[in-house]
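Tokens help. Our protein:
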Amino acid sequence: MSLLVVGLSHRSAPVSVLDRAALAPQVRSKLLQDVMGAEPAAEAAVLSTCNRIELYADVDKFHAGVAELSTLLARHSGVGLEELTPHLYVHYEDRAVHHLFSVACGLDSMVVGEGQILGQIKDALAVAQDQHTAGRLLNDLFQQALRAGKRAHSETGIDKAGQSLVTFGLEQLAGDEPVAEWVRGKRALVIGAGSMSALAATTLARAGVAELVIANRTLDRAERLASGLDMGAAHALPIHRVPAELPSADIVVSCTGAAGLVLTADAVRDAVLHRDSGPGHGSAAASPLALLDLAMPRDVDAAVHRVERVRLVDIESLAEAAADAPLAADVDAVRAIVSEEVGAFGAAQRAATITPTVVALRTMAADVVATEVARLEGRLHGLDDKQRAEITQTVRRVVDKLLHAPTVRVKELAGEPGGAGYADALRELFDLDPQAVAAVSSPAPVTPEVPAPAGSPDRTADSTAGGRL
């Protein structure tokens, strides 16, 4: 295994840099193709969320891989390499596995324990599969990361500590008042119809908003989302009608994939003026306009923070609030799960490196049996078919019994740290043809349902791999 991760997140970079570096869906696909076109990489996947942008790759060489992935991230993000580099982190081999599993379990999220990251990891794998950039290593890695995340949420109480960014953001807007009481009687506007917007709409509906409007560029998606909510006062409208709808809203949640701003400071200022002067606009007279911006890059102009009678909570605000949030006692239990899953993944990958050699050995043994049985038949005349079959089966059983114990034991040993050398020893002892082993190592493409082993690790990296770039 030679897994490399290069990325930046809310822990390593200010929100302003994350905002500018955010990758649109079409950019992610082009990035994956460019990574595959680079010499050091054999597989690639991009994990891009409002908290992080990470590039995973199976590389031949550590230093060349870091340089190439960093350059490609800078090129596709539009942030210069010199500016981006101080915020990048690098993880390699086991540390890279540990990082992704920690991310999947919510330990590296802005809001510790949040479960939305599992869907984002699943989406990242799906995109890599669609682009044919995920092979054996990344299929195995991402699927086990999803299993680790599910274990964390089912076996511990991390859900008590973790909450979605939507819930956390609404709590910040509500202040000391419970969200259910704060939203009561209010009119909410959700801009966007993706997974985060759907979560926002569902959360607001369950909390008890009086009316909910979904605005989206594709009206059909907004209508489907509105019709699926468990409330009668929910309807959809095209996104170009947002400015006209804004004065009637008390709560606005925006999370789109737009490249530019969805709500400018002028648009929000005009909406506030209409709310203050126009009758019948929800609870406008009692409370300021509450805006929750969960998009990356941001949907709402940061200048809105300076607009009177407006309360804006965005990713940057959430990052500051989350830094002071207490960790649950179950975090230690989740960390133990991560360590256990990392160990299991490493053992499985190391053990898998021996499989092609074992298969090649058994193939060679079968060829030897066939040759010797054919030679024996030439010397023993008058044997009927039953006798020939019995002799052949006996010879095969003898060879199988001789090979069984050593091949089982060598697989066990290969799964231990430092066990990769057992494959080399087996090839040397039995004088196996390297081309025969290589042929076994290159089977048909692997589907997500049938994960397969990755190749052997590259040991060229220095001992400092896994820290900040």
The radius of gyration is 29 Å. Residues 385-414 form the longest helix (30 residues). The first strand starts at residue 3 and ends at 9.
